[in-house]
Amino acid sequence: MEYRRLGRSGLNVSSLVLGTMNFGNPTARDEACRMVDSAIDAGINLIDCADIYNKGEAERILGEALKRNGRRRHILLTSKCYNLMGPGPNDQGNSRHHIMEACERSLKQLQTDMIDIYFLHRTDFTVPQEESLAALDQLRRDGKIRYIACSTHPAWRTVEAMHLADRYGFPKIVCEQPPYNLLDRRVENEILPMCQAYDIGVLAWAPLAHGVLTGKYTQAQDLPEGSRGTLRNVFRERITEEGVAVGRRFAERADTKGCTAAQLAVAWVLHQPGITSTIIGPRSLEQLENLLPGADVQLDAADLDFCDDLVPPGRYVTSFFNTAAWMKSKGI
Questions:
Q1: Which residues have a catalytic role annotated?
Q2: How far is 267 from 177, CA to CA, in rounded Å?
Q3: 191: domain CATH number?
Q4: Model's pTM, two decimal places?
Q5: Are strands 145-151 and 115-120 parallel, antiparallel or unpaired?
Q6: What is the domain range of residue 78?
Q7: Quick check: is 315 in a domain?
Q8: Into how many domains does the chain fold?
């Protein structure tokens, strides 16, 4: 396993990150625990989670898995806050109130006294960033988190946070977690250059484009039973005819290289400038084991040119920003 420096943090993190969104649904508890063990055995030292994943069940399962194997100190643990987690008007967003409550709940569910990297899951335009950063600073001073990060934020908002950190002595963002795969390359326009300029690490999510890049979809309107697109509408929106057409040609390229399309999709992301790691979110131990070799697949100039012809740099054929209200361009 290759390890890369995570932005200005000084942390060395594995090029593959285990994502836990599937823990609890559809991945059963025991299977998820085996996946955690296998990932650590393979050299993965960063496990990504969030309070919203299956309404907290993913955190509870991950906490149990780490308690079972006694290997919490061997990995870096993340969680996130922002999303609606209760019936009240203050049970969401990036207010001091919600950040503090969300962190306490995640610590309890993860059965840990400290979260290594704590993310603002989305930006909150209704709350001044000074308030959010001050809350995160307090959590850091209290020893409940070590580093702060953001996910799927507009570049200008992250830059604003960096300047506020300079002004008030708040902790600086060490990494951004954006969607990035061959079907949606818009992060290359502003987000990735911004991260490189400010020494911010990048953990890319959805490298397989919800399986579209594996070539398993034959058409966008006929989804395989149990596939990601059948689970939630937000996933369904990311499966388009244009994306399926790209996925078909991408899978053919993988065949010529002697690897799976899923492995090639992982490798493509890891070969892009400014990327620290990519998050893989397998649903089974078998899927995890099949994805791991993707970190070792080498792409040459011809491979990269082929992919650029499929979807040019900075362009997209399917929007993976459909959970980010600030990204106005949703269609093709």
A1: 53
A2: 17
A3: 3.20.20.100
A4: 0.96
A5: parallel
A6: 3-209+266-298
A7: no
A8: 1
